[in-house]
Amino acid sequence: MTNIPSPAEELRILDLELRGLDARRTQLLQRRAWLIGALQRAATPAPPLPRQVRAPEATPPNVQNALLTLGGILLTIAAVAFTLVSWGHLGIGGRSAVLAAVTLTALGVPALLLRRKLRSTAETVAALGLALTVLDAYAVHAVALPRADALGYTAAASAVLAALWTAYGLSFRSLRLPLPLAVVTGQLPLFLWARAADAGDHATAAALLVTAALDAAVALRVSDPVIRTVATVGACATGLWGALAAGQLSWSATDLPAAAAAGALLILGASIALVAAWLIAEPPAATASAFAGGLLIAAATGGVLREALPAAWTVPAYLVCAVALLAVVRTALPRPVLRGIAGAALLVQALAALWTLPAVVTALLGPTNWAAKAWSGAPRDMDDALALPGLPVQHPVMAALVLATVAGVLSTAHRLLLPALEHPGEAPQGHTAAAPASAPGTGPAAAPTSTPPLDAISATRCAALALAWAALLVLPSALQLPYAIGVSAYVALAGALLAVASRVGSKAVGLTSLGLAVSSSVSVAFLALASVEATLGTLGALTVLFLAATVFAARRRTAAPGVAPAAACATVAYATAFLSAAGTAWDLRPEHIGLLVLVVPALSALAAARLGPHPLTPPVEITGAVAGGLAIVLTAGHTATLALALALGGVIAAGTALRTDRRRAGYAAGVLFLLASWVRLAAWDVTTPEAYTLPVTVPALLIGALRLRRAPETSSWTAYGPGLAATLLPSLVAAWSDAHWQRPLILGSAALLITLAGARHRLQAPLVLGGTVLALDALHELAPYIVQVVDTLPRWLPPALAGLLLLAIGATYEQRLRDARRVRDVLGRMH
Questions:
Q1: Alpha helices of 430-503 — where are they, by DSSP H?
Q2: Residue 532 to residue 585: CA distance in whole angstroms
Q3: If exposure means fewest CB atoms within 10 Å of the residue's CB, which of 247, 527, 638, 812 is most exposed?
Q4: Of 303, 335, 580, 314, residue with least CA distance to 445
Q5: C-beta neighbour count of 573 within 10 angstroms
Q6: Contact criterion met (CB below 8 Å) for 324 and 340
Q7: How confident is residue 131, by pLDDT bands cut at 50, 70 and 90?
Q8: Distance (Å, rounded) from C-alpha 492 to C-alpha 521?
């Protein structure tokens, strides 16, 4: 019987056939086009390969310059050879005529060459002429002035040559070499003259600074980039050399006149740098020049004050000069100049603060020495209490004064310095600051009204806070306060920092203050170890202070984030330390101190329950748990007390598990209770733990079965895990130390039944616990035989078997992974 398709089905079949025919036609057309192209390519001859033309390795101008340079060098060598070798064969007239003729010819020919547009040739001949002028100077000294001082003659000759080359370069401006060479030669006359005249170190430094001033004038006045670069390098080199020489003279001065003379040189160098900064158009270069000028002013005035004041005031003298230098920030100077001067002043203050580092380190780390001699007796004063061997501290009073001064400057920086230096409308060039005065309130002095960025304000505040803290940290030792007063001062300092941390809204300032408070508290806690009374009083006071800071910061909505949790952790830590110290002071044994410390996790659990879902809850609970662990460790030396501590810890964890959001704490409670029971059994020398564990296991299993019936989604670990572990694990421990066969047999049988029950009902906890106990019990029973077999085997056989096992595992590695994943999936699907 033939099945005739429906019209719709027949239409669908026809469409499919037509679509297939279209696809086939397209494929044949593409093949036809490729074949036609292949035939055309075969009929057309291949074009010849293009001839490789080698590119020239040197351009005509480069070849010309190389030839001219080589010719100039050869002519110069010939002139030198003539001057040194053939000079004596000519008379004085001949010598003069030859030198004059050759030099004038070499200097005059470039004029003719420049008219004919032969610039490169003119440059080469001019270079030869300039070299001949140097030889002329040498010839004059060798013949006409042989007895003249070499340095003095060189100074005069370099000055004359610089002047001649300058005139020659100005006459022929198309030549690029004479003027830069004149600038380079101009670096020598003043310095060589000072050395030749034996004028002394001050005159030499002055000559270098004057040379730097001339170089700066040339660099600022000339527009040619090559000349400006040479003059700038010369100004920097001679200026730096002269400034360093003047600074050395100022530092080594032994009386006030010598310091004043060196200071005058430094002021000269500062004037040159500041005037150059005023006139320089580029802001970075102007800032760098003003920075150097500010440093020189501080060095000059500080050096004079250092000689006028006692030796202890050396660093404060420089610091006062740097602070006074900041006064120019509020003037109408250009912004780049202000930034440079302010940077120099801040650098001097930073160096002054760095000078106080030994005093700060001694005040902060010196108390750690009391950890090795705790409660050995209070020292006489704070100077004895903070002695740190190997780190001498000079002038601690001045160190505190320096730190306080720098802190005061930084505390006003965001109101005075930063607005003046961060003004967005600054002029890009130095000379624009000298514009005519405008209406009141709109001139340059009133312009800096913008608000500095918040990160800059926070940074300056944090730095000022840290320096003020360092000053107060050094002060008790500097004043040699009595021990009790010094400890009280440090505790008060920690309290003040905590007050700041809990009140400010800035995160940076709050966390900085809190970090400083923690550092101070740790330092004073070590310092208080000198006596029992100081230890208890300090730890108690610190606990109260951190608790108050925690409460105050938690209640303020504008408090810096992170302050309250950190303060809460510190509160728990100091409470733990206080109870430990109190127990030690009462001559309690370590295990009894551990029981006393358990008060801290109990109070932490109560506080966490009172807080509820609060940001402070996790840190309080975590630090309380750490304190509880410390308490248990302290009781580890006494078995009965350890069992009691574990039981009390289980009570605390069980109480925490009563909260709906802390149900998981019940697992910890179960583990602690189980450990407490095992430790108690061990303390009683019980050899049959089943008599005590089975009465617990049976009700626990019944309760677990009822819970599993009411809530089938309950995990088997929750329902049966605690009950099974309460008996299986102690019995396993007892079986491993039992020399008889009855207990291992009974335990293995029970573990086998539990394993089979877990596999039958697809319960994870019975399967895992039963299987683990069964395997370990079997291993215990086979261990003696394994030892005997190993003793009888050759020594090489175990490593060989291990190697074969590893090879087998490696060969079937992927299969083992699949098996492991399959076992994991099966266990994961169980309850």
A1: 454-478, 483-503
A2: 7
A3: 812
A4: 335
A5: 21
A6: no
A7: confident
A8: 10
Task: Name residues whose C-beta falls within 8 Å of residue 157's C-beta, 6 or more positions apart in sequence.
Answer: 137, 140, 141
Nearest to residue 313, comparing CAs of 304, 300, 323, 326?
304
Cα distances (Å, whole numbers) of residue 128 to 81, 105, 172, 308? 14, 10, 15, 58
Each residue's pLDDT tens digit, 747-777: 888 888 888 888 888 888 888 888 888 888 7
61 has a pLDDT exceeding 90: no
For 176-223, how does the pLDDT look when each residue is reduced to its tens digit (9 = 90+)? 788 888 888 889 899 989 888 888 889 999 999 999 999 999 998 888
Number of other residues whose CB lies within 10 A of the CB of residue 244 = 13
HEC string of 223-286 equals: CCHHHHHHHHHHHHHHHHHHHHHHHHHHHCCCCHHHHHHHHHHHHHHHHHHHHHHHHCCCHHHH
* C-alpha to C-alpha distance for 401 and 396, rounded to whole angstroms: 9
Give 416: exposed, middle or buried? Use CB within 10 Å, 0-12, 13-18, 19+. middle
Measure the CA–CA gap between 768 and 729, rounded to whole angstroms.
13
Above 90 in pLDDT, residue 598? yes
The closest of 382, 398, 314 to 348, measured between CA atoms, is 314
Residue predicted with more confidence, 619 or 98: 619
* CA within 13 Å, CB half, 72: 21
Answer yes or no: are the C-beta atoms of 586 and 562 closer than 8 Å: no
Four-residue CA torsion sign, 577, 580, 585, 586: positive
Q: Which residues contact 471 (CB under 8 A, 6 or more apart)?
A: 400, 401, 403, 404, 407
The residue with tokens 């030749």 is: 196
For 599, list phi and psi in degrees, rounded to 5: -65, -35
222's enclosing H/E stretch is none
Radius of gyration of the chain (CA): 46
Any idea what DSSP says for residue 55?
P
How many CB atoms are located within 10 Å of the residue 410 CB?
23
CA distance 575 to 593: 13
By C-alpha distance, which of 517, 567, 521, 572 is closest to 542?
521
What is d(CA 657, CA 670) in angstroms, rounded to the nearest whole number? 11
Provide DSSP, 116-156: TT-HHHHHHHHHHHHHHHHHHHHHHHHHT-TTS-HHHHHHH
Residue 535 has what pLDDT? 94
Could you say which DSSP state residue 452 is in?
Answer: P
Give the three-class secondary structure for 388. coil
CA 473 vs CA 362, 524, 625: distances in Å: 10, 10, 33
pLDDT of 437 higher than 50? no
**Is 113 within 8 Å of 72 (Cβ atoms)?**
no
Q: At 249, list the tokens.
A: 């003279």
pLDDT, tens digit, for every residue of 325-349?
888 877 778 888 888 998 899 999 9
If we measure between CA atoms, which residue out of 609, 646, 613, 624 comes closest to residue 579?
624
**CA nearest to 328, candidates 305, 301, 294:** 294
Q: Helix, strand, or coil here: 381? A: strand
Q: What average pLDDT does range 679-696 have in this prediction?
A: 73
Measure the CA–CA gap between 653 and 672, rounded to whole angstroms: 8
**What pLDDT, in 10s, does the model give residues 162-180?**
888 888 888 777 777 888 8
Above 60 in pLDDT, residue 440? no
Q: Which helix (H) or strand (E) holds 382?
A: helix 382-385
Residue appearing with tokens 């190993």? 790
Confidence (pLDDT) at 739: 67
Q: Number of H helices and number of E strands within the chain?
A: 34, 0
The model's confidence at residue 555, banded by pLDDT at 50, 70 and 90, is confident
d(CA 397, CA 386): 15
